[in-house]
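Researcher: Next entry in the queue.
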Amino acid sequence: MPGDSAQKQQLVIEATYKQVFGNAHLMESERLVQIESQLCSGQITVMEFVRLLAKSERYRILFLEKCSNLRTIELNFKHLLGRAPENSAEISEHIRILVEEGFEAEIDSYLDSDEYFQSFGTNIVPYYRGYKTQTGKNLTVFTNSFQLLRGASTSDQSTFKENYLELHQTLLGNLSHQITNIDSIPKVDDPTEQKVESLATQEQPIITGQDIFYNGSSTTQRAIICQNHYKTIVNEGPIKFIPSGSLEEAELVIKALYKQVFGNAYIMESERLTVVESQLKQGRLTVREFVRRLAKSELYKSRFINNCPRYRSHELNFKHLLGRAPDSYQETSYHSQILDSQGYEADIDSYIDSEEYKQAFGDNIVPYYQGYKSQTGKSLLGYTNMFEMLESLSTSDKASFQGNQSRLQKSLMSNNPINIQPVNVNQPVIDPVKLIRKALKLRFI
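Model: Structure for this entry, 445 residues:
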């Protein structure tokens, strides 16, 4: 490494991050630049670089605090030894180390093992070895590796099924170590031979919303997904900006603000509002005003206003600025009227200047998701709608599996017991709900 070119050194560093963090995206501010420098200058080996990454706070947050112990062990095997665990005895031993000796001792147990040294030495970046059968290893590791690897484009942080176990059932069941002979696989019927009549009469399931994530999952797995959503939000808690605090605390607040206001979407360094960030750090802006500037920025407009249908934009504004889903169709209609009569910036102000925002977040608390708990004076419709709007903790409102379509428009319109009041009493407004129901010959509620 010390004698290599800067380009080759950077290639090694990127490969190490990719392997140790399971292809998860890391922001520039999350990288460990100090130990990168130590690696490039030859002060530490690749093995020690891997050790420091795996013991970092970021790794701990992603793969220990947000996962069950069993899932953590699976991922440690994958990230540090490049393979899946071989049997339940291996997992039991590492769980014992984790519980009795702690997280750092658990990481050391992989890196100080003979297997690691024989496979990678001190200066080879760990890589996935499970794609090939290995001398002295049974075929369980080979087959299990394919359960841990979903594809080159996904990551261990952002998975469709979240952080439930991939191998526990297989390992505890002591399933066969042999791969099924291809000749023994039953013949699959040719779908082209099926009659058109049978297809026409067959009821096809419609997969929408979170069914994309739950389809094919057991009841236990679905419960774990919901629990992980709830636990992660609850454990985060409110983040408050203290003007007299340290620079590191200010950076943490700014990072949380971008994450909340931009719906977990990735923001490039060149897209950040550095002038506004500086004003917040100097105490010239409150968090509330910082939120206002972000939501009125061209970047926010380009992502969530210009490229989204109107009702989807309203849903996202509620989620990003008030931390909840809209309670009723009247709420979205109210903001639509502001948008038409007063413009985009006035609509953003209507959220941030509302009594609800002031009571929930004040001037210096970063907005956060409130919709995971039922709230006094709020209907349960908003509570249930919040789960519809949050597909996954790892996806973003920019890169959504359902695209930019509205999530709640139909449910809100079907729960509209109160007539919409016109903006100008002298100019009556046609109720779009009644119009649609009349056109579709639906019964009025």
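Model: DSSP finds 24 helices and no strands in the chain.
Researcher: Noted, moving on.
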